[in-house]
Amino acid sequence: MIYGLVAIGISLIYSGLDIIHFAHGEIYMLGAFIGLTIYNQFHAPFVLVLISAMILTAIVGALIERVFYRRLTKSGGGYTVAGMGMVICGFGMSIILQNLAFLIWGPKPHPFPITFGMPLEIGDLTLPSSYAWIVSAAIVLMVLLHLFLKNTRLGLAVRAVAGNKEIAFLMGINVPLTITLIFGLACALGAAAGVLIGPINYVQVLMGQGILVKAFAAAVIGGFGSLPGAVLGGLLVGVIESLGAGYLSASYKDIYAFILLIFVMMLRPSGMFGVIAKVKA
Amino acid sequence: MNAILQTNEVIGGYGSVQILNGVSLKVDRGQMVALLGGNGTGKSTMLKALSGLLKPWSGSIVFDGERIDGLRPDQIVQKGLVQVTQGKEAYPAMTVEENLLLGAHVCRDRATRLRGLERSYTYFPILKERRRQLTGTLSGGQLQMLCIARGLMSEPKMMLLDEPSAALAPQVVMEIFRIIGRICRDGMTLLMVEQNVRMALLLVEYGYVIKDGVIHLEGPAENMIHDDAVRMSYLGGTVANSDIKLSH
Q: Looking at the partner chain, which of B53, B92, B105 has a beta carbon nearest the beta carbon of A172?
């Protein structure tokens, strides 16, 4: 589920900006830290922590896009042409964000001291109730995203920009502003994932690393650029990983996601809901 | 001054390649004008300059009293100048109705949007039938109709048409041109970029022929239809000579 949220962010950024955002793992980490700080300072209820972390991270993300990434498009052609530069910039931003986090929060893993009450018992499974929170929050977010994209005027504009920027311009859509919005949205989702996983795992500066590649794999498995694909891919990766860890070997846990990736790439290279390559006008 | 659109010595191009070498033309309110030319003459580039997708290097474009050269395309749409794309530029992943609503993006209120939908369905009943279908199911002619309807949604002051006959069968082209004629008689101002010289001149009132990035010829449509110079400049001079025979 967590992979799904981050994967949606990655696919969103790809369809909106035509770039692969290598700093997205750090956005996830940033969201977690912001959420943690808010919680430690204000002891607010979890839902509020989640929402405010999402908004704040979205704003930070939007600023990063506007101030840094946007400059790479100055020579014209938009993000597509700036592709290679963006990859490097993404790596750089990832390092910057990690070091900023080191400076602010220190290298030690922080626990997220929040309790959700008694564990749930379903059949003969005992799950920590935080799992229920994660799943329901993730589902709610995904449903909200879907409704936004399908039923609102702005959502339609986002889909138009993701599809073909020139035509979107001709529809009277402020494309640069919408691109910033898409980026902010993707960052909000990444932050949500970070905050949601906080209570289960420790919040630490390097948490973005592991998640980026797996979420990336999930996005590719589902079909890069496809949002439902990202969700499905995320679910698949999560399930395969847990199954693998449970039945095969827990110490090789990280491999299962990539084995799945290789498998899917061999069978269906464009991913499950593979999006046809966009035609640039 | 009755001109709603006026360009003056527009120069521009892509990268270091200059395509437009000083294009000056004008369109009066309520007039139907065609911009004609073959491939590579600069008419598509000029269209991009008018709709804002290309920033001119020099020269001016004035629409409804305001300079629009250098504005973003969405700003130009807000001023009431809309480019109607070719049929293939409809969004394939969206339904007919969603595409239409996208055309009304600049309209803030629901009433205008609904009115736009109603008008689209009146001009093009086939769109109403297929309004919840993805555009991938539409034929070439229907897609062009969709794009025209989409362009009208924001109730623009003037429309720019981008080669509406492209890739369409002659019967279909005639039907679409008939509808365009009807829309213009209902009060729309039109500048149509076209390769199909004959059909365009049968529809419009005034024509410009662009060649090598400048306006080569202009005049009332009835004159241009019979003008040999038009045929020569468009067809390059050799095929226009009627004593060439295709031997077998």
A: B105
